[in-house]
Design brief:
- This protein has about 210 residues and is of the alpha/beta class.
- It is built from 6 helices and 7 strands.
- It has a single domain (about 30-210), classed as Rossmann fold (3-Layer(aba) Sandwich), CATH 3.40.50.150.
- The chain is globular, with a radius of gyration of 16 Å.
């Protein structure tokens, strides 16, 4: 069985965007951060044997991690065809490097905006746009996640805390875990002024409130 450290090492070898889209806010999810969240989710019983959606999957780092940690099936959903190609490439790398079998039915790649995606899943994993380029872009992702799953892991700016508290309550969810990180953003766009810029990002675990 993989350890959290071994998972992080695997994720450092993934292919990344050569020309990330600024409008889609395609930024790299740090391998150590991804490994910490996925390992915590696994220890909480949210990965192994579960059906999962990775919304706005990008290079597939969250969804592929889930497969490595025993997910039954992962839907990789992204509006950008180049992102899905990278996710497929990274899954193929993992498959060949670590001699994984029976992946045919464990991964489904869907080229689509998230709005029409309506598969019911156990868990959503997502690192959505933070709304830097398009205000409230993350709200659409969270709304969809609450529609299709009972457990959601979602990354947002730390200053979104008040909104997330209220939005989750309005949708019948409660926050059960919170992680906070210095999220490294490497210089990938012409308008970036620092080689690496760090900002505070949280990952929230939401769980649907069971009706009594």
């Amino acid at each position: 069985m993989l350890t959290q450290k071994q998972l992080a090492i695997i994720l450092t070898q993934f292919s990344e965007f050569a020309k990330p889209s600024a409008s889609l806010e395609q930024y790299k999810t740090n391998p150590d951060i991804a490994a910490e969240i996925l390992w915590s989710a696994k220890m909480n019983g949210d990965i192994e044997g579960k059906t999962i959606a990775d919304l706005g999957c990008g290079t597939g780092i969250l969804g592929i991690s889930a497969i490595l940690l025993g997910a039954k099936k992962v839907f990789f959903v992204d509006v950008d065809e180049s992102a899905l190609m990278l996710a497929k490439k990274n899954l193929e790398f993992v498959k060949n490097r670590y001699q994984l079998k029976n992946l045919k039915n464990r991964a489904e790649f869907i080229l689509s905006d998230i709005v029409p995606f309506n598969e019911k899943v156990d868990v959503v994993l997502q690192n959505p746009p933070f709304g830097v380029q398009k205000e409230h872009a993350d709200r659409k992702f969270l709304s969809k996640a609450f529609q299709i799953a009972d457990v959601v892991y979602s990354f947002h700016k730390t200053e979104s805390q008040i909104f997330l508290d209220q939005f989750s309550e309005d949708n019948g969810f409660k926050i059960t875990r919170y992680f906070e990180f210095d999220f490294p953003l490497p210089k990938t766009q012409k308008f970036h002024t620092h080689k690496t810029y760090k900002f505070r990002v949280g990952c929230w675990r939401f769980e649907r409130i069971k009706q009594s």
